[in-house]
Specification:
This protein is of the alpha+beta class. It is built from 9 helices and 4 strands, in the order E-E-E-E-H-H-H-H-H-H-H-H-H. The protein has a 4-stranded antiparallel sheet.
Length: about 240
């Protein structure tokens, strides 16, 4: 039986076809069976390549440290694409992935917990949902997941601080990855893209900072007013007695 994939002059050849950068080139006179086998390979590859890259990046990071800089040169992908692939592959474990669903479906559930991912991916398979319909299902699921009923200001503060801790941990993790990234080896386009994305992040963080500072000030003022109302203004009781 012919080996489906082999390398010839550093170019992959699949069942009688050379996979060159400029396109698919037949080698000799491929048979119908070879043509069909090549098509099946291409279908599987198109749905798995981003998982392959993400798993490759995660393996490289675990074994040899941060590898994004070299990865940009080796794959030709933009750094943002590589970071996305790595994140999704790390969030959706191989055992939870569905061969019958495209990569885009897995992206939609990557921010959820494993059990939630399984539940929604099972539904996508069962109902044969395309990515647009599946995105609506995931959005509806997220909106339906409400916080448990809370009583008292202390309970609300606990939930708020837990959320803040999660956001800070995620932000610090991404900042650490950027800190150890060897920017000097990036080409001009990769540096420009990285700079553009960082500017967006800084802009969003600045807006959130102002928002939460204003909210904090309003909270302090509101507490001060409530405190004064509860204690009463100086001399109020005396006036009431006269």
């Amino acid at each position: 039986m012919e080996k489906t994939l082999k390398m010839v002059d550093n170019i992959p050849v699949v069942s009688g076809f050379r996979l060159e950068k400029g396109g698919l080139v037949p080698v000799g006179e491929p048979t119908f069976e070879q043509w069909a086998t090549c098509g099946a390979f291409l279908k599987n590859a198109s749905g798995a390549v981003h998982f392959w890259i993400g798993d490759w990046l995660n393996f490289g990071e675990d074994k040899w440290g941060e590898m994004y800089a070299q990865a940009v040169e080796d794959t030709g992908y933009a750094i943002q694409t590589l970071m996305n692939d790595k994140w999704v592959a790390g969030r959706v474990k191989s055992l939870d992935r569905r061969e019958n669903l495209p990569y885009s479906h897995h992206v939609e559930v990557a921010n959820l917990e494993p059990e939630e991912q399984k539940e929604l991916l099972d539904r996508a398979e069962r109902e044969h949902l395309d990515v647009r319909s599946f995105r609506q299902v995931v959005r509806a699921y997220n909106q339906k997941c409400e916080l448990p009923e809370l009583k008292g200001e202390q309970s609300i503060n606990k939930v708020d601080f837990a959320l803040v801790d999660q956001v800070v941990d995620l932000g610090m993790s991404m900042l650490e990855k950027l800190r150890i990234l060897n920017v000097e080896v990036l080409d001009k386009d990769a540096k420009a893209l990285l700079l553009s994305q960082l500017r967006k992040v800084v802009a969003v963080l600045g807006t959130l900072l102002l928002k939460y500072e204003d909210s904090a000030q309003e909270g302090l003022l509101e507490r001060g007013v409530h405190s004064q109302m509860a204690e009463g203004t100086p001399g109020q009781d005396e006036k009431g007695k006269t």
